[in-house]
Amino acid sequence: MNRIAIVLLATAVVFVLALLAAAAAGTLARIDGATYPAALMRAATTFAAVLTLAAAVTGALAQFLP
């Protein structure tokens, strides 16, 4: 496989994991009694946090590549 395919596959996996985490956070917030807008904000915050964490890890690991 070439590098572009690997990068696109990794990006898709991270995006799907971020969506799953956001859906779980929104569902748990709603079960906890939050309103729909509050649950949506928690889901959006979780989605952004997962993407930020993935970018930080990628940046840290990129220092060790040749």
What distinguishing features does this structure have?
66 residues, mainly alpha, 85% helix
User: What characterizes the major β-sheet?
Assistant: none
Supply Rg: 15 Å
Distance between the first and last residues' Cα: 18 Å
SSE order:
HH
How many domains, as an integer?
1
Helix run count: 2
The residue fraction in helices comes out at: over 70%
Beta fraction of the residues? under 5%
The gross shape turns out to be elongated
Q: Helix/strand/pairing class, anyone?
A: mainly alpha
Total beta strands = 0
Low-pLDDT sequence parts: none
What's the pLDDT, averaged over the residues? 95
Please give a quick description of this structure:
This protein is mostly helical and 66 residues long. The protein has helices at 3-31, 36-62.
Task: Give a verbal description of the structure.
Helix 1 packs antiparallel against helix 2. It is elongated and about 50 Å long. It is mainly α and 66 residues long. The chain has two helices and no strands. It has helices at 3-31, 36-62. It has one domain.
Topology at a glance:
Layout: H1 3-31, H2 36-62
